[in-house]
Amino acid sequence: MSAGKSRHWKESDVQEAIAKMKEEPGLWPEIEHTERTTGDFRDTDTGKRERQILARLHPDCTLLEITDLYVAVRKHRRSELGLK
To answer: Residues 40-64: pLDDT tens digits?
Structure first.
């Protein structure tokens, strides 16, 4: 098994992903609440919905590439919320 190729996402890609998430009714406030409280998105509906949006936004990307975008979005969000 070979390691997948990663992708460097631009800030404009991150902003586009955030905009798509904010279009989903009620999702962004749920994400921010989870980020501020537990910060644990594993096995949550919120985390699944977030990753589904990213996968639909970039259907030709690999799981690794989508994960890289997810990490970039989360890093941006945590910074906006004043979290490390």
So the answer is: 999 999 999 999 999 999 999 999 9
Domain residue spans in the chain?
12-80
pLDDT digits 0-9 by tens, 63-79? 999 999 999 999 999 99
Nearest alpha-carbon partner for 27 in 59, 61, 9, 52: 52
- Relative orientation angle of helices 27-36 and 63-80, to the nearest 10 degrees: 70
Cβ-Cβ contacts under 8 Å for 65 (sequence gap 6 or more): 4, 5, 6, 7, 58
Q: Are 40 and 76 in contact (CB under 8 A)?
A: no
Beta strands in the chain, from DSSP E residues, in sequence order? none
